[in-house]
Amino acid sequence: MMIKEQNKPKYPIKVLLNSFSILDILIKKNQPVTIHELSETLNLYPSTIHRILDTLHYLGYIEKRLDSDEYQLGLKAIELGLSKLHQIDLIKEANPCLEALSKEMNENIYLAVLFEGEVLYEAKKEASRKISLITHVGTRALVHCTALGKVLIANLSPQERELILGSNPLQRRTENTIINRMALGKELEKVKRLGYAIDEEENENEIRCIAAPIRNHRGEVIAAASISGPSYRFTFEREETMIKALIKTTKEISLRLGFREIS
Q1: Which has the closest alpha carbon to 243: 204, 195, 207?
Q2: Among the residues of 115-229, which ranges form H helices?
Q3: Cα separation of 232 and 224, whole Å?
Q4: Which of 84, 71, 9 is nearest to 38 (CA)?
Q5: Where does the chain hold its CATH 1.10.10.10 domain(s)?
Q6: Which helix (H) or strand (E) holds 123?
Q7: N or C: which end of the chain has fewer CB within 10 A?
Q8: Which CATH number is 5-77's, of 3.60.20.10, 3.40.50.2300, 2.60.120.10, 1.10.10.10?
């Protein structure tokens, strides 16, 4: 097994270890392999290898070559790798921009993505002054009552939105939370039109948030960045300044990721 002993789990699942060992071989060899080669390398019966390959093939993680008995990585495995690279690139390219925005506004700055129908916080830049809002990287939030969530679902189709929002009543977080679906739909269209969203104490009392989209090279909204802080600091004049600075920042991040606006 190609596993470091110090990282070995207490209760390893053998079939999983074998499956990922096969994928590991395909990645490292970077060329098609036969069942016989895998059997010799891993010291497993060919019948065991065949059953694992059959399952991985069904799931799309490997492919069998039409002209031989060899197997190679499938599109699902490649998609998985590209997804990780995208994640790394996103944080790497966004970090300096988020840092600069945090220093300029002296407020907490967040970056989030849509994950399993929720807002997933992936990066945070803290303001130098104390802020009552504490949200950690890796935590999740609801989409309908956060500025980040509104931005992340505003550009989706009505069908995709429904899948995310589900059929249950929308959860009320504060008195300002939008729980009427028709009203939320109008709000999302407004967000799409303006290019930013505002959480007016909809998720947490006395906390306001402004968010704007981050796009990839295809123009798809893949993330969002936000400025969050106490409501009393979000005066009308300052909020206008925040919106301009935030949109400038998210456009800069989008440009770093390959997005080009069509003039």
Answers
A1: 195
A2: 147-154, 158-165, 181-194
A3: 24
A4: 71
A5: 5-77
A6: strand 118-125
A7: C
A8: 1.10.10.10
Q: What stretch(es) of the chain map to CATH 3.30.450.40?
A: 84-256
What sign has the CA pseudo-torsion 90, 186, 179, 132? positive
Distances (CA, A) of 204 to 111, 198, 201: 18, 13, 5
Please write the tens of the pLDDT for every residue from 104-132: 999 999 999 998 889 999 888 888 766 55
The pTM score is 0.67
Q: Is 231 exposed, middle or buried (0-12, 13-18, 19+ CB in 10 A)?
A: middle
- Read off the amino acid at residue 158: P
Q: Which of 47, 56, 76, 71 is nearest to 16 (CA)?
A: 56
pLDDT digits (tens, 9 = 90+) for 155-192: 898 889 988 988 788 999 999 999 999 999 999 999 99
Assigned token pair, 165: 């929002």
C-alpha distance from residue 247 to each of 117, 146, 210, 211, 254 (Å): 24, 17, 10, 8, 10
